[in-house]
Amino acid sequence: WKLSQDVVWRKNRGSGFTTDRFARIHEHALHWYRGDWSAVEHSTPRVPRTGPAKAVTRRSSSPHTGKIGNDVPYVDDGLRLTPSVLDHRNMQGTRPINPTQKPVPLLEPLLTYGCPPGGTVLDLFAGSASTLVAAKLTGRKAVGYELREEQCESAARRLAQDVLDFEAS
User: Fold this and answer.
1) How does DSSP classify residue 163?
2) Which of 106, 105, 152, 160 minimizes the C-alpha distance to 125?
3) How far is Cα 166 from Cα 115, in angstroms, rounded to an integer?
C-alpha cells in the first residue's frame, strides 16, 4: 500500500475535553492505493480560482515520475487544484444524527478523487450516512455498514429508504 493523498479537515471547533494538550481542531482523511499509479482512480477535484488569471509557460511532467517534458503553454481554465486542507464547520449545534457526523460537502471531493463515477463506495462505519449521501450526490453507488441499530434507522430515514428487518422469517 502506498499513500496517495492526505487531506486535513479543519473544523470550526475542536473535539475532546482535555486541557493539557493542543486543541484538536482537525481530522485526517487518507487515500491509499496498490499497484500502478496510472491504473488507480484519482480524479483530482478542482475549485474556481481566486485572484487574477495567470499567463505563463510551464513544463509538463509525468505524475510521480519526475520526468519533465517540453515547454507547454499554460491555459488558465479558471480552476485550481483543491487544497489539501479543507475548512468545513463540524456538525455540532445542527442536531447531528451521530456525534462524529461529517458534513457532506467535506466528503464529496474525497469521493470524487478516489472513486470513479458509477463506482461503489464502502463505508464500514456508516453512522449518520453522510458518506452514502455524498456518494449519491456524486454519482456513485454506496454500501454502508453500521452495528448500532438506532444509527441504521436514522440513516435509512435520511436516505428515504426502509429499514430491512433481518429478524423476520
Assistant:
1) P
2) 152
3) 30
Instruction: Tell me how far CA of residue 87 lies from CA of 7, 108, 162, in angstroms.
Output: 11, 13, 34
> Among 5, 9, 15, 13, which Cα is nearest to 86's?
9
**C-alpha dihedral over 91, 3, 22, 125, to 10 degrees?**
40
Count of helix runs (H) and strand runs (E) in the chain: 3, 9
pLDDT-based confidence at 134, cuts 50/70/90? very high
Of 107, 114, 108, 104, nearest to 44 (Cα)?
114
Q: What is the pLDDT of residue 38?
A: 85
Torsion of CA 28, 29, 35, 38, to 10 degrees: -110
**Helix, strand, coil share of the chain (percent; to 5):** 20, 30, 50
Q: Do the bridges between strand 2-15 and strand 57-61 make them parallel or antiparallel, or are there none, so unpaired?
A: unpaired
The residues pairing with 5 across neighbouring beta strands, listed in sequence order, are 31
Contacting residues for 95 by C-beta, under 8 A, at least 6 apart: none
- Give the number of residues written for the chain: 169
Q: What is the pTM of this model?
A: 0.72
